[in-house]
């Protein structure tokens, strides 16, 4: 299926690896020009070259990299300067650390809010009106399955990402936005095979003394599909939400977790 986004410009944050790279790859393979943003210049350069060499990349597809911290004003300015008229924006930032809420001071909360709530809102504010004026826009926020099923040790993430979810729920249904063929949706990943998941499991290894294989196997058993998701699977879901065919889908939270969430709704 042709997703109808060939030649459109996409900004993908946290795109040097993991879920962000999976999204950038899927969009580029659909012919969208992609600007990848990440803090690590070396990893970003490798990601850009890897994507440019991707078999099946449509001829003429542009892939650019901006080494910047998207959670900082200057980082956002650099990303937005790379292409002044984005048709697609995928927001993504590393999640805050786990822990006990009693140990988090105000600075820890502000940092979490800056990265996982306020930064996406700033990127939306900077791009959504231009999308509406041009009659096409797709914004996808990578949040977390913890928005649907909060995890006690991830209180910083639970709070910040849920705040973003509430904001998006209202804005996405704004007549001025929705009637202009601009959609805003959230992707909620569960356990995906990424550096973030490995770091979390390594933390469990240090606390419990178990082997990494044992910790990983125990985590897989919490997923009905008995495996971790892949960045390519996640990217494919993102590409669909960014497609012309998804124009009637907005304000939604798509949980991708292999069936781990036990609820009906």
UniProtKB/TrEMBL annotation:
Per the UniProt entry, the signal peptide is: none
The record's annotation in InterPro entries points to: NAD(P)-bd_dom_sf, SDR, SDR_fam
The family note in this entry says: Belongs to the short-chain dehydrogenases/reductases (SDR) family.
What's the name of the protein? SDR family oxidoreductase
Originating species: Ramlibacter aurantiacus
């Amino acid at each position: 299926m042709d997703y109808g986004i060939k030649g459109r410009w996409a900004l993908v944050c946290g795109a040097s690896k993991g879920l962000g790279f999976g999204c950038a790859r899927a969009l580029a393979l659909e012919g969208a020009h992609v600007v990848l943003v990440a803090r690590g210049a070396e990893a970003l350069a490798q990601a850009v070259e890897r994507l440019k060499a991707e078999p099946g990349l449509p001829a003429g597809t542009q892939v650019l990299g901006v080494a910047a911290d998207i959670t900082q004003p200057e980082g956002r300015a650099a990303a937005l300067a790379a292409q002044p008229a984005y048709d697609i924006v995928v927001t993504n930032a590393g999640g805050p650390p786990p822990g006990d809420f009693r140990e988090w001071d105000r600075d820890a909360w502000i940092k979490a809010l800056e990265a996982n709530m306020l930064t996406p809102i700033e990127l939306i504010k900077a791009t959504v009106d231009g999308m509406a004026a041009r009659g096409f826009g797709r914004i996808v926020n990578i949040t977390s399955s913890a928005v649907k099923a909060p995890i006690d040790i991830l209180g910083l993430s639970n709070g910040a990402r849920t705040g973003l979810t509430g904001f998006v729920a209202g804005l996405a249904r704004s007549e001025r936005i929705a009637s202009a063929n601009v959609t805003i949706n959230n992707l909620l990943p569960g356990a995906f095979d990424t550096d973030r998941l490995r770091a979390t499991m390594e933390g469990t290894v240090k606390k419990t003394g178990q082997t990494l294989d044992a910790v990983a196997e125990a985590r897989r058993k919490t997923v009905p599909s008995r495996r971790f998701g892949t960045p390519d699977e996640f990217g494919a879901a993102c590409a669909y939400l960014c497609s012309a065919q998804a124009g009637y889908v907005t304000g939604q939270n798509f949980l991708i977790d292999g069936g781990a969430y036990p609820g009906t709704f």
